[in-house]
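As practice, study what follows.
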Amino acid sequence: MTGVQTCALPISIRTAAIATAPHNGVWHRLARNIVRNGIWLTLPPLFFSLILMSSLPAALTPALFNRDIPDVLLSGESIMRILVFAMPAFFSIGLSSRTQKQGLALYLAGVAFYYLSYGALILFPDSAWSTSMLGFVAPAYTNLFWMVGLGLMGERFHFPARLRYRPVFFIAPAAIFLVFHIAHAVIAYLR
């Protein structure tokens, strides 16, 4: 009788573990996908620019920055911006490969460059840098670094498809967005 009782306990524990394992696995995968979602890395540059936009020199405020810009350029820029900022929600990021680690370094450097470009325009609006085309357009072209870094950190798509993640799937639309965005900034500067 003692042998039967000691065997019954491990079996019931094992049965309970097996019964809840798929449920726990789903929650674990969901939590991992949320934490490793690429969308989180779009938030620092996005929130930074939204918070400080009103502190930029007048020429870079939305009302003046968008004045007299061709509609096709504004539309293309807006469509590509939505795509580029939404797309990371559909892939996870990782740091397991050398490319992904290089992507993290590029992302961090890019965010720093982006922040510095804003800082220079806000703190020193009349400086030679801020009044030059290179300085004025810096908040547009410094996006290149963090966007490429984010693309390189991508690991896999969240949707169940046979399409394997490749950095070009994010970097190509980001490059198209940047063509529109930089052209917009250059036109605004030349006015």
